[in-house]
Amino acid sequence: MENHIIQRVLDIIDNRITDRITLRELAEETGYSTSHLNRLFSGVTGITLMAYATRRKLQYALYDLGCGERIIDIALKYGFETHAGFTRAFKKWFGCSPSLYRIHAIVGRPARMEIDELISNVSGGKIMYPVIMEIQPFTVVGFTSRHKMPEVRFSHDIPVYWDTINMDCAEPLIRLHDLFSKSRHTEYAVCFDIDPETSGFTYLLGVGVDNPEDYSKIEPDMRKMEMPGGLYARFTTPLIEESKYVHAIRDTWKTVFDNWLPASEYEFDEKRYDFEYYDERDHFYHYIGAQLQQMDIYIPIQKR
What we know:
Blueprint: H1 2-15, H2 23-30, H3 34-45, H4 49-66, H5 71-77, H6 83-94, H7 98-104, H8 115-122, E1 131-135, E2 138-148, H9 158-164, H10 166-179, E3 187-192, E4 200-208, H11 212-215, E5 223-227, E6 230-236, E7 240-241, H12 242-263, E8 266-268, E9 275-278, E10 292-293, E11 296-303
Antiparallel strand pairs: 1-6, 2-4, 2-5, 3-4, 3-9, 6-11, 7-10, 8-11, 9-11
Helix pairs in contact: 5-6
């Protein structure tokens, strides 16, 4: 019976998602007092009713963000009086700004929320165990290009993007590795200079340069990027066959932003950059008898 009432409340919220939803109205719909309904809801789901309503509005707002709507228009549509108020609420729940989330995670139109799914999401959803670590500043040298969604919609589309421009990126990577031959063989993909209104961003495809003798070899058409280091959460994709590799990377990105970051004690430190890190594990031919690949995603974090 309790689950039936809660499911009814979930459906009411979805049906009135752009309305101003109050606890009193929801209580009247169910025939319960406001205090009893709120205790019932939080006791079963682990979250207060109005906190859920706010988060659900933000989930719908994510879809509108992915469709290219302006943040201020979305804020007003879902009952947030200002751009800043919407951004604060979003960052409280998801641990990063709306524009940053839009670059990183796949967002589809929200499906009907089932009570079992809500309980799973609130309790952590997919469990991830990143390595929380301090890394030292390091240098990446490579080639930059400017892009705008939907040409490349999300950071986890980078591997797909590499595939689509294979004839264009393979030669630069070889050139970089041959030039900086004294540095350890690593590759990086970084997205930065994100424009929250247009979803434009700069994409750097580069290699790590850690030997001082290689610094003098940097050529005019290359960009040297100093990564500041600091506290990061490192997520490692499963060791997986080539045919599933891109999907594994995309799924890891999505799980980080949909499950781990909102539930963690950390938030995204937007003064620094996330990045994808590829080393010898990315080259499956190093695994004798099995074509398996693996890489790391680094997220800059700070305590909330």
